[in-house]
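[recover] target loaded
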């Protein structure tokens, strides 16, 4: 996507068929044009071109080919300089990209609701450091992070992958050359070992491809973004850089190359049309569009009348190819920010306007940023160092905007905590869940009060006393955090479960303060404390099974007095025999809870909370406080099947107690989004910590005394 397409890959610069390959490459610009248009159409009309995302893969192949061609040329001339190579990449890439990031960051602070700042600004920082792909890989496997909506800089994942390639690939080539020279005691003018370089890069390419096939099948979300699963696409283009100057290219007729070019173009087009979001990607099937791109590049601009060269040379095609990098940079922020700022889905008119505006900005960026930067020479002494220093300063300037946003957010969150504490102190009988039990007395109490937590801070409203205690995705050993309430002389208690057990942390710790409990907190997202596994993807499913066994071992070893547990409702469980998913979920709890009871512990199972309406925080932004009821959910649909309810019926109530807060979460036929001035939900299914804390007095009243004391 980002390397210049004017390179020398032929052995000489004489005017021959091979000399055509040493100058301008119109077919590469055409590939860029088709790639960016495919991505643009896919982003705006994903159902019209379901495989348009393959344009990014085409860009990767182009970059691998061009960059390796440059490096081989420099190595052959004996002047391969990594600092100069990287300085050229900085000069080529960073000015335009940092301007887009800076403008996007400013727009986020000025026009985007604060509830999205944490995600958006964090990703802008990651994109500034060209680590956006790893940021997305990490959040895609995080249970809570996976609920994030796309950010305006999410498209920087591909640019980050390319930048990492530009760092690593030259180092590999340089190291290979150094090792060869040292081991062979080669003189300074010795010819670089092309076969050895080809072998080293081939091994890396094949290894990356093998890993991509494995990871895409077993853990597809992070595999999509990881550099390790994408390196083979760059590698494929790199290996072509060796073959392009070989006898194979020189001896094949123009007509054969023309046919190869058509096959390549048609292959790319068919893949863009038939691939979908469910295609295992970048897996083995990705070889097909990659091969298509390789054919087009290898065929070059054949003079044959059968060749598609005349199409590639069309001015509109070349124009789009020229501005493809800047067009890619500008289009995505508009696609994300317009619906967020104006609170509606993109209309057809807006989509067409995005194409025009992005194209205009892409042209202006190309003309006034990219081209002037490319003309600047790296020859003057000290210029290379200046480019590095300049890039660092520019990146710090861009990062300063998110830093300002984080500071504003921290202040907003601190003020929200104070407001919440003041409201809870002044209206204890009406704040949060208490408003549901006190009924008419609390009507109108918070009509003019601020929403607590606000829509800007709700997503981060969780108990911070056990921050970092949630097991990581691949963690298989149960390592609880321990909290001592009062003097710790009371019961020995375990809070265990998935993320819906974790969001009850304040409930357990509040009871610990009241009854002097020592509480161990143990949870792992998407992993209910059960003998039956959820139907989730590998390797998380295997990790959950191992973690669950480790958690049970902990229970049997520590001999807790009480185990408090909860889990998300409405999910599918692995079945066996004729069991349904719901029956399997209940069976898993029956077996697991019996194992707990056998240790002498009692169990309090907390019935799962109802679901809010879709995008509840966006709704509250628009309708709070006057019409907040528009954000309530239908009680008949809000409660999903909870295996805990059925499993509890099968045990002695003196051993297993079902703690049900439904009467405090819903009234009549609705489940409010705001109860007693408190914002109930922090996302699509988890409750805010502020609301959970208001449940503590009711839990204390409802849990039988025999469960509270040892």
């Amino acid at each position: 996507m980002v390397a210049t397409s004017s390179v020398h890959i032929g052995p000489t610069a004489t005017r021959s068929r091979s000399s055509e390959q040493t100058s301008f490459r119109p077919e590469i610009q055409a590939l860029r044009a088709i790639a960016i248009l495919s991505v643009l159409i896919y982003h705006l009309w994903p159902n019209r071109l379901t495989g348009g995302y393959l344009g990014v893969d085409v860009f990767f192949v182009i970059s691998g080919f061009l960059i390796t061609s440059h490096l081989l040329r420099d190595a052959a001339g004996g002047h391969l300089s990594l600092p100069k190579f990287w300085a050229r990449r900085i000069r080529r890439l960073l000015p335009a990209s940092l301007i887009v990031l800076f403008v996007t960051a400013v727009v986020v602070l000025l026009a985007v609701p604060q509830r999205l700042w944490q995600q958006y600004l964090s990703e802008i920082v990651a994109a500034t450091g060209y680590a956006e792909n790893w940021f997305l890989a990490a959040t895609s496997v995080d249970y809570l992070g996976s609920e994030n909506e796309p950010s305006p800089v999410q498209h920087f994942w591909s640019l980050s992958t390319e930048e990492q390639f530009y760092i690593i690939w030259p180092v590999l080539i340089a190291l290979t050359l150094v090792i060869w020279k040292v081991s062979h005691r080669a003189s300074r003018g010795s010819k670089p070992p092309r076969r050895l370089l080809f072998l080293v890069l081939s091994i890396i390419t094949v290894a990356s491809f093998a890993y991509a096939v494995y990871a895409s099948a077993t853990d597809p979300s992070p595999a999509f973004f990881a550099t390790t699963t994408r390196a083979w696409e760059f590698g494929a283009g790199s290996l072509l850089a060796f073959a392009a100057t070989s006898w194979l290219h020189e001896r094949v007729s123009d007509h054969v190359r023309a046919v190869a070019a058509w096959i390549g173009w048609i292959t790319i087009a068919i893949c863009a049309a038939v691939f979908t979001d469910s295609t295992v990607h970048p897996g083995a099937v990705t070889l097909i569009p990659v091969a298509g791109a390789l054919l087009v590049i290898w065929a070059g601009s054949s003079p044959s009348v059968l060749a598609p060269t005349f199409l590639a040379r069309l001015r509109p095609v070349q124009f789009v190819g020229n501005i493809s990098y800047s067009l890619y940079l500008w289009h995505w922020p508009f696609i994300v920010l317009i619906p967020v700022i104006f609170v509606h889905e993109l209309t057809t008119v807006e989509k067409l306007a995005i194409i025009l505006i992005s194209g205009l900005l892409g042209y202006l960026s190309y003309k006034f940023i990219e081209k002037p930067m490319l003309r600047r020479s790296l020859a003057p002494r000290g210029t290379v160092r200046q480019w590095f220093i300049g890039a660092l300063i520019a990146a710090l300037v861009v990062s300063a905007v998110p830093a300002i946003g984080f500071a504003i957010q921290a202040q907003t969150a601190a003020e929200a905590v104070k407001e919440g504490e003041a409201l809870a102190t002044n209206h204890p009988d009406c704040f949060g869940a208490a408003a549901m039990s006190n009924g008419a007395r609390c009507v109108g109490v918070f009509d003019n009060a601020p929403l607590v937590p606000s829509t800007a801070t709700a997503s981060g409203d969780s108990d911070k006393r056990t921050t970092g205690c949630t097991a990581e995705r691949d963690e298989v050993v149960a390592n609880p955090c321990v909290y001592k309430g009062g003097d710790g002389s009371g019961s020995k208690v375990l809070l265990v479960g998935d993320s819906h057990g974790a969001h009850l942390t304040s409930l357990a710790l509040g009871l610990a303060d009241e009854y002097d409990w020592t509480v161990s907190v143990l949870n792992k997202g998407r992993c209910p404390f059960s003998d039956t596994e959820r139907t989730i993807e590998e390797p998380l499913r295997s990790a959950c099974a191992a973690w669950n066994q480790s958690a049970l071992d902990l229970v049997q070893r520590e001999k807790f007095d009480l185990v408090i547990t909860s889990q998300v409702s409405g999910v599918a469980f692995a079945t066996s025999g004729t069991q349904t998913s719901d029956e399997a979920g209940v069976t898993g709890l029956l077996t697991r809870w019996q194992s707990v009871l056998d240790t002498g512990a009692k169990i309090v199972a907390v019935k799962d909370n109802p679901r809010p309406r879709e995008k509840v925080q966006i709704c509250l932004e628009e309708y709070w406080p006057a019409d907040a009821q528009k954000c309530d959910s239908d009680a008949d649909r809000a409660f999903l099947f909870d295996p805990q309810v059925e499993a509890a019926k099968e045990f002695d109530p003196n051993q297993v107690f079902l703690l049900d807060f439904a009467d405090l979460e819903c009234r009549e036929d609705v489940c409010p989004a705001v109860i007693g001035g408190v914002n109930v939900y922090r996302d699509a299914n988890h409750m805010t910590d502020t609301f959970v804390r208001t449940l503590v007095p009711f839990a204390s009243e409802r849990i039988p005394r025999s469960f509270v004391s040892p």
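[recover] notes: The chain has two domains: 18-405, 427-708.
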